[in-house]
Amino acid sequence: MTNAVNKLLEIKTGSAVLHYDKWTDKHKFRAVNNGYLKQWIANILPYELLTRTLKKSVDSIVSLCECTTFYKTFPDNIATPDYGDKWGRLANYIEINNRAIAEMRNNECRNGIYSTIKLLPAIPPSAKSWANCIILSQIWPNIYGDGYNKAAWEENSIYGIKLGIGYSENIIDYTIADKISAEEQFKAFNDLAHFRGLKTGFRTIISEDQLKVSRPYKEDENFRWSNPEHVELYIQEMVKILNTGFEAIFVDSAKHIGGYDLQNYTGVGALPEYSQMQYITDEIRRRCGSTTISFVGEKSSDDFERYRKMGLNAGTAFVSVDDFNNVKHWSNELKYSRDYAPGVEVSNDNTEGGTTYEIRLERIKNCLFGFEYASDKLPSFMQMEDLFPLRYDTNTHHLMMCNPSYSTDGTPESHWRELFTKDDGREYNKKVGEIFAHALSL
């Protein structure tokens, strides 16, 4: 049986035969010292990758193989990078807004899965001691305007999703779904990411008024955690997508589950009860038959045991990232906590811009080097913008809330060119690459 990557290539291009990519060879960075075989592309603009063909992107991914072997066709049975069952406790999570980089053609938004594949060569692979994990911002249809872009001031939020009706038209190529299913398209993405030495995951919503239950030929229902059928559907949807190769779930608003610290809760609607969330994380792991699934909770507090017992492996934004010594202090304080640890973040999905390149670079350094021993590293979280700076009049949160096209002529190529900064963004990306080059040998 043809593997998902070769099947996708045959359908899209007519051939699964791969060729060594000389363009990749000219733009690759390497990790220093004993991490020398770890390679990725840096000193680039996303436009240069996003405008390549899908075939060239796979050529590039295979050309960067650590194994020093070039495969003429994409190999079968790609294994996820093995960092043990508790890999999520140490990982760097990099959220990619796969909707924002989708193909914006006039008012349509399509095929974000291809754009995310095209960015894979420019994501630094995992280090010797810990994993880099890509988190996709969108998997399921957003409630209003899925499959379309809107004006920059019109809401089209990723924070409201439908369950039970398949996957987002922003992401999946439904024009070929009769030949290669949505699940197989996700499988192809995950195999390519794993080949790159990356873990993968996705963002999910748990505020019940931001969820809808959709069924063919019926009105959408409001999701309710008090409804056992809705809880069961939620678990089934998570398991189905995890079975395509994802291994991490970023849980929006996880801090407030069970009514905790609700005075700072900004979501809409009730959240799962504490014991209910314990059941959900346990059940997802059990049904997937996997002990490696990492649950990451948005925000955390000093009640670390609460999150560990909820089934989480990592949290965000507890440790002050701008103080290197503070990061190193908490790495040491929590070194015996091997199941769960709060983390540091360069930026998050609520970041509204204004952070200088210099501050971002220092934060990345603190995340990647704030420890005495690499085995004690804290988990970290960053956004696409922390690797590839966005144009100055937008920001991470804006692109989560809205879905504008920046195309000047109605083409995807123009959108990709205009979405990110230009020469200064290239220089910044080079500096990020230099930081990772020193971190990946650890």
Tally the helices. Answer: 14
Mean pLDDT: 96
Largest sheet: 8 strands, parallel
Distance between the termini: 38 Å
Structural class per helix/strand content?
alpha/beta
Overall geometry: globular
Uncertain parts: none
Side-by-side strand order of the widest sheet: 13-12-11-8-6-3-15-14
Radius of gyration: 20 Å
Please bin the fraction of helical residues: 25-40%
What is the strand content?
5-15%
Order of H and E elements:
HHEEHHEEEHEEHEEEHEHEHEHEHEHHH
Task: Tally the beta strands.
Answer: 15
Walk me through the structure.
With 442 residues, this protein is an alpha/beta fold. Helices cover 33% and strands 12% of the residues. The protein contains 14 helices and 15 strands. The chain has helices at residues 4-13, 22-27, 46-50, 54-63, 112-119, 182-195, 228-242, 274-288, 304-310, 324-333, 357-369, 396-401, 412-419, 423-439, and strands at residues 28-30, 39-41, 92-96, 103-105, 108-110, 132-136, 161-163, 199-204, 211-213, 221-222, 248-251, 294-297, 314-315, 344-345, 380-383. An 8-stranded parallel β-sheet has the order 13-12-11-8-6-3-15-14, covered by helices on one side. The protein has a 3-stranded mixed β-sheet with strand order 7-9-10, covered by helices on one side. Strands 1-2 form a two-stranded antiparallel ribbon. Helix 1 (4-13) crosses helix 6 and helix 11 runs parallel beside helix 14 (423-439). It is globular, with a radius of gyration of 20 Å. The two termini are 38 Å apart. 50% of the residues are buried. The mean pLDDT is 96.
